[in-house]
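Researcher: Sequence recovery benchmark, item below. Answer with residues only.
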């Protein structure tokens, strides 16, 4: 997709065009940690042809309450993506702790899975994941309900959905980053071997979560919690 300005009307237009079209150059300059398949690299557009049927005009971006669901769908996708990364990190750590982790000599137990501190960490991981799952399921259900309203969707309903998705995203970010970092505390030093690539969960999540600063999401939620000011529809909320 590409954004361009309609010189005649002075408004933003969105078009879906193939990346191999003449005039489009993908610079392939994304060389950051994590998210190797992201589309965050630079692109150059030079006299690119855009056909009328490639423009997303009806409805235009944020032109109606219902069309305002598009950015919320993207945010909800991130919620479930972050949850999936956290769940993957948990499962990887769980398998390693069960089958390969060594017992600390002061633990007075024979298996790592019986270490009281290891158990405490896993208990905290589980509580965090369960909370994110609950928030994600609630946000998913509210989105389905909003989608089914179609053009009858009211601004108040969209605002409640934005708050639910924002809450889920904040918690998914925090729990995911915590779990993907602390997993080494329940697997041990050997788990840091490069061949394991256990750090990929943190790297992917850390990079992806920086695309939408969580501080501004929390501020938005705070404005609702304290002043009952609903989120302003935008391409990020």
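Model:
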């Amino acid at each position: 997709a590409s954004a361009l300005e309609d010189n005649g009307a002075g408004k933003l237009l969105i078009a879906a065009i193939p990346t191999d079209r003449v005039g489009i150059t993908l610079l392939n300059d994304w060389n950051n940690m994590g998210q190797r398949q992201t589309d965050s690299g630079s692109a150059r557009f030079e006299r690119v042809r855009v056909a009328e049927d490639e423009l997303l005009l009806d409805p235009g971006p944020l032109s109606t309450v219902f069309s305002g669901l598009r950015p919320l769908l993207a945010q909800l996708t991130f919620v479930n993506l972050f949850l999936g990364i956290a769940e993957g990190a948990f499962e990887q750590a769980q398998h390693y702790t069960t089958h390969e982790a060594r017992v600390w000599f002061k633990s007075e137990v024979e298996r790592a899975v019986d270490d009281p501190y290891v158990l405490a960490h896993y208990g905290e991981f589980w509580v965090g994941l369960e909370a994110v799952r609950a928030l994600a399921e609630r946000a998913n259900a509210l989105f389905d309900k909003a989608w089914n309203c179609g053009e009858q969707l009211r601004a108040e309903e969209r605002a409640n959905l934005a708050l639910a998705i924002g809450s889920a995203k904040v918690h998914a970010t925090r729990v995911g980053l915590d779990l993907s970092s602390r997993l080494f505390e329940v697997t041990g030093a050997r788990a840091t071997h490069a061949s394991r690539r256990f750090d990929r969960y943190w790297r992917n999540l850390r990079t992806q979560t920086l695309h939408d600063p969580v501080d501004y999401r929390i501020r938005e939620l705070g404005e609702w919690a304290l002043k009952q000011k609903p989120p302003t529809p935008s391409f990020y909320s």
